[in-house]
Amino acid sequence: METGDQLIADVFTTRAKELTAEEKQKLEEQNKRLVPEFKANKLEVDAQRHWDIFYKRNETRFFKDRHWTTREFQELLDQSDSREAEKRRTLLEVGCGVGNLVFPLLEEQSREEGNEECVPCGKFYFYACDFSPRAVDFVRANPLYDPSNITAFQCDITTQQVHEHIPAGSLDVCTMIFVLSAIHPHKFEAVVQNLWRLLKPGGLVLFRDYGLYDMAQLRFKPGNKIADNLYVRQDGTRSYYFAEQEVAQLFTQSGFEVLTNAYVHRRTLNIKEGVDVPRIFLQGKFRKKTV
User: Fold this and answer.
1) Neighbour-count burial of 148, counting CB atoms closer than 10 A to its CB (0-12 exposed, 13-18 middle, 19+ buried)
2) Given its phi and psi angles, is residue 258 left (phi above 0), alpha (psi -120 to 50 degrees) or beta?
3) How would DSSP label each residue in 166-185?
4) Do residues 58 and 243 make contact, with C-beta atoms less than 8 angstroms apart?
5) Closest of 278, 270, 265, 264 to residue 2, by C-alpha
6) Per-residue pLDDT tens for 194-210?
7) H or E element at residue 276
8) What's the CA gap between 223 and 50, in Å, rounded?
């Protein structure tokens, strides 16, 4: 895919990256000085505050709108059963941030509905939740925010709070894009079980996050590693890097079946600027079992 002077190439694979000797050495260096246990515990206690400060500092400027999601996840546009075409589906964006995923989807939906020559896309009612109250305030302040199409609320998705806002078994789709990596691994199972409870039988989780041995993981210096594949950034937020089999097991043990689950090796080349950025993400689709 070309974008201006950039060339972006994606390769999907279930094989983990093979590390060079230099990269192995970088990971070994990280182990020489780990985050002390008391500091790691404080990062957990202060997690919401760190994300609130992040959004206070960056407001709506940090992330670009995620128009790519409908390319990677056609389920966000397609209506799988024509008999249900007039029935509004429901979608929850977990970790909505300032709305960089949900508002492009709302715009797409509005364009389709306003064009009589096009078959309407699947009509969604959107829920959007985030750990940060400040992020939710930004979503509600967006000119596209309309309670007839979207409800945004603050909650900790690792707890039962989300069930105060959304009935069990009522969702068609949950998106979790670069969200689970910000949560402590001890709470991953609780998050996935919450999504299972919210989804209808056959409902989908659309997942994308940081993959094992991503460039960002290899760049961490000694003093930033909390535990295996878990790191703290300079601003106090945390990031986890996922293995393919680990994510598959996480979902299957909570009652999902794996539709797709693979590493995305993305290489962004800008010859004019002399930029060559290799990234590794993990992308999957998981369906709640019907029996």
Assistant:
1) exposed
2) beta
3) S-TT-EEEEEEES-GGGS-G
4) no
5) 270
6) 999 999 999 999 999 99
7) strand 275-288
8) 18
Q: Supply 240's token pair.
A: 């986890």
DSSP H helical segments within the chain, as ranges?
Answer: 21-30, 37-45, 47-58, 69-72, 102-113, 133-141, 188-198, 215-219, 244-252
pLDDT digits (tens, 9 = 90+) for 246-283: 999 999 999 999 999 999 998 766 656 666 678 999 99
pLDDT at 116: 41
- Angstrom CA distances, 213 to 24, 140, 216, 278, 291, stand at 10, 36, 8, 11, 36
User: pLDDT digits over 152-196, tens only?
Assistant: 999 999 999 999 999 999 999 999 999 999 999 999 999 999 999
Q: What mean pLDDT is reported for the chain?
A: 86
Question: Cα separation of 208 and 218, whole Å?
Answer: 19
3-class state of residue 75 by DSSP: helix
In three-state secondary structure terms, 10 is: strand
For the segment 212-234, the average pLDDT, to the nearest whole number, is: 96
287 has which bridge partners?
Answer: 204, 257
